[in-house]
Design a protein that fits this description.
Layout (H helix, E strand, L loop, with lengths): L2 H10 L33 E10 L4 H13 L7 E4 L4 E13 H15 L8 E4 L14 E3 L2 E2 L1 E3 L19 H9 L6 H26 L4 E2 L5 E2 L3 H10 L5 H13 L3
Antiparallel strand pairs: 1-3, 1-4, 2-3, 2-7, 5-6, 8-9
Helix pairs in contact: 1-4, 3-5, 5-6, 5-7, 6-7
Length: 259
């Protein structure tokens, strides 16, 4: 096993026996690209790798703010930085232990909501996504003529602001060195992340309830009457434009709402 293979397995391999099995993405040749973690994973199966991409157009200035916030605000290890070889920057997160894909997606959604909420959603791509796609595009491959995807150092990322690709195949030893600097998110840190995400989701549920809440009605004597809270929660749950995590929280609240 090459150094690049070893570093990839450390960050994005199966992780624990409970994780879904996947073929070794680096078994063929030491120069082969790292390939894909959790290949073929089904919705609900655990994942170790999370990827957030921003493109159309690529915008390292915006994504670098997320890269810094992950460390300074969320208290997590620095994610890996990659250029996708055609038109986007990516942040790669590694988990020490696999987690449900829904948890992983909720975390990425929270990052986007908090730090990239001013951007059109179509410029963002998340893995895992809501359609059960857990396999991001490969890193270290030729995407088209003279355009390669690769991991890049933080101080060099701005160089690729207009052309997020390498003109030649990335050097395996250089890629291994970049991966060697990265660390996985520990289970304890992930639990703290989930608590924060849940708090954000609950706050958004409350805000969404206020948005869909109709104006209070009045009784015959002119006193205000509260609207049915179950109707508000049902409206959130049925709103196809609302994030999945938000709709799930509304459904949970609906189960416990007074009848």
């Amino acid at each position: 096993m090459s150094r690049l293979q070893a570093e990839w397995q450390r960050l994005h391999g199966p992780g624990t026996p409970a994780a879904p099995r996947s073929p070794d993405p680096l078994s063929r040749d030491a120069r082969d690209p790292p390939g894909q973690p959790e290949a073929g994973a089904l919705a609900g199966e655990p994942v170790r790798s999370l990827v957030l991409a921003l493109g159309r157009p690529p915008d390292w200035a915006a994504l670098s703010a997320v890269w810094r916030a992950v460390q300074d605000d969320w208290g997590l290890p620095a994610p890996g930085i990659a250029v996708d070889g055609k038109g986007a920057f990516q942040l790669w997160f590694s988990l020490a232990q696999p987690v449900p894909a829904t948890e992983a997606h909720a975390f990425l959604s929270a990052l986007c909501q908090q730090h990239l909420g001013h951007l059109p959603p179509q410029r963002l791509a998340l893995w895992p996504d809501l359609d059960g796609h857990h396999t991001p595009p490969p890193v270290g491959t030729q995407v088209q003529a003279d355009q390669w995807s690769a991991f890049v150092a933080p101080d060099l990322a701005p160089v690729f602001a207009d052309t997020p690709w390498l003109d030649i195949a990335p050097n395996p030893e250089g890629q291994a060195e970049l991966l060697a600097r990265l660390r996985s998110i520990t289970p304890a840190a992930w639990r703290a992340v989930q608590a924060r995400v849940q708090a954000q989701v609950q706050a958004r549920v409350q805000a969404r309830v206020q948005q869909v809440q109709p104006a209070p009605t009045q009784a015959a004597d002119g006193t205000p009457q509260d609207s049915d809270p179950r109707r508000f929660l049902q409206g959130v749950m049925d709103d196809a434009s609302a994030p999945l995590a938000l709709r799930i929280e509304a459904a949970k609240a609906l189960l416990h709402a007074p009848r």
